[in-house]
Amino acid sequence: MFFGRFGGQFVPETLIEPLKKLERAYKKFKDDPEFNETLEYYLRNWAGRPTPLYYAERLSKKLGGAKIYLKREDLLHGGAHKTNNGIGQALLAKFMGKERLIAETGAGQHGVATAMAGALLGMKVDVYMGAEDVERQKMNVFRMGLLGARVIPVESGSRTLKDAINEALRDWVATFEYSHYLIGSVVGPYPYPVIVRDFQSVIGREAREQILEAEGTLPDAVVACVGGGSNAMGIFYPFVNDRVRLIGVEAGGKGLETGLHAASLNAGELGVFHGMLSYFLQNEEGQITPTHSVSAGLDYPGVGPEHAYLKDSGRAEYVTVTDEEALRAFHELSRTEGILPALESAHAVAYAMKIAPEMDKDEIIIVNLSGRGDKDLDIVRRVGNV
């Protein structure tokens, strides 16, 4: 239930039994042959796994240091890693006999993944989304509607992801008998951080096999962006017991000194929020503070408890990249490799660009390209070149 001192179930009494039922169901079905055969079928034939591991040769040579490989989750059906967890949890809900999916979303990618999975499995889908994110991610809102999902704008609080999670939790309390709350990241009360990590760890398992086949060795570093932390935990987990640097990149926004960021591991404090004990951005009274990032998917004031554990244990490093650095990386990858990365992923690319020149040419970095940048084109167009 805990990762070291992090995690747990800090929820109202009414949610304890639903969480216990979810835990029992997950333990039952995760080793069930029919469940796993069905999930593997959909991941391969519907979602498009395995995704490629691509050597970014032009970018690597331009930087003049380590080889940079990109794990192309942007090529997954739906355009982001969120599909892995979306189909996994939706299928779990179907096996549990649920008929409705509730989800929250920030950048919209998790909402799209849930809407896709709901349509595939014939389930009703309601997606809570902060009103500010609805405005920032209009195209994903449109996509969810096309897929048959209902998007519910959340006007409370800062009108972003944390407020959407609050509303989704309230819905689940009242409807858990027939609804499954499909959490989109490695956050929330146990067993969600474990379930989401397990469904996303297909990224790391594939990357591990692919780099061994391509280079005959494990990478020296694996780099991924961290908001709630699902794409990072997905690629980190199969490398945790190896001698590989694990580097999570948080949204530094306009700089940590400005207070306008979303870097809970670098600037947060221990607290309880959304049913878990972890690091959160909060004021002296313990109230959650507003966040900022150019990337809606990283705009969350906390982080999954397993990341907090990896940080405190020293197994993983967590750094920050500013909005401006991420936008520069967005343009650099676009021009050198012909790939438009999601702004979330651009944070990871930016940090790889920082460390690659300091590394030897025979060293290897894998960057998890967690999503594609189509959804962010309006933001990039408004901001312009940096």
Commentary on this structure:
The protein has 386 residues and is of the alpha/beta class. Helix content is 45%, strand content 19%. It has 16 helices and 14 strands. It has a six-stranded mixed beta sheet with strand order 3-4-14-9-10-13, sandwiched between helices. A four-stranded parallel beta sheet has the order 7-6-5-8, sandwiched between helices. It has a two-stranded antiparallel ribbon with strand order 1-2. The chain is globular, with a radius of gyration of 19 Å. The chain starts with a strand and ends with a helix. The model has no long low-confidence stretch (mean pLDDT 95).
Major pleated sheet = 6 strands, mixed
Low-confidence stretches: none
- Give me the number of helical elements: 16
Rg from C-alpha positions?
19 Å
Helix content: 40-55%
Strand content: 15-25%
In one word, what is the shape? globular
| Oligomeric assembly | single chain
The count of β-strands is: 14
> Cα distance, first to last residue?
44 Å
Structural class: alpha/beta
Give the rounded overall mean pLDDT: 95
How are the strands ordered across the major sheet? 3-4-14-9-10-13
SSE order, one letter for each helix or strand: EEHHEHEHEHEHHEHEHHEHEHEEHEHHEH
